[in-house]
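hi! just following up on the protien thing from before. the input was this:
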Amino acid sequence: MDKFCPGREIANTCPMEQVPPRRSGCNLDLPICGGYLPVEMVPFASRTDFKARRPKSVSSSARSSEPPHAFRQFYDALFSALGPQHWWPGRTPFEIIIGAILTQNTSWANVERAIANLRKAKLLTPAAMEKVSGPRLAKLVRPSGYFRQKARKLKAFMRFLRREYGGSLSRMFRTPTAELREKLLAVHGIGPETADSILLYAGQHPAFVVDAYTRRILERHGHAAPRDSYEQIRARFESALPRDAHLYNEYHALIVQTGKHWCRTKNPLCDECPLAPFLPDRFRTGAAPETGFFAEPVASRGVR
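and the predicted 3d structure came back as:
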């Protein structure tokens, strides 16, 4: 198994609104940032709140095809193989929110350049971004692509934050998860994946983020179909797992590593993947082309 390097790059949560770019070099996407202390995660087998309900074994002979059991088994297998990922994107909650909006339909490398422009212009606070003109904001976020639309989306979020919470992120994140999610989805430019990324990564709310990697892995293991919606897949994870933001964070990071290094769109390395024992035989590398197994998952259409 390849050795994973310490994170030297900023987060790429791989929204389903974007096509993940090919990258070489360092494997981890996210650094351990000073503002966020990672919580040491443990396999479900060690969790006292979960032990009585999880299968005793994750071996292929004992695996369950029932989604709740399968999702727990997947986590155990990935965590045992890869260990904690220390995913804490962005320097501040506000920067995480900005990144979640800018990363739509582009690579994270481009988002990094846009955020660097915003940092240099001292605009990475709600008050500063609220005051800056739309044209200047668009110019600064130009590296992220679709810069005029994204500037409007950022301004829409600023207006929402001011109107609903007096410009206070801490007040916003004190809102119950379901209520805040509904409000975020009503903001121009924020779809389900962006909303869940804001909730989980910026607000530490238990909202599971479903991205292209998640869908691809589930489809190949027979736990999702191309027609399944974002909400259906998210609900499966959240009904199968404890409502724990740190767990969701860790699980999503493990899924991204699996999608980037084994469960790839083309030439997947099924036999080397930590989830190989759970993969149906018809979906292993070398499956007949007519199965459609290696097709790219349908992208999310949640962003408006």
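Residues 147-165 form the longest helix (19 residues).
Confidence is low (pLDDT under 50) at residues 1-42, 44-64, 286-304.
cheers
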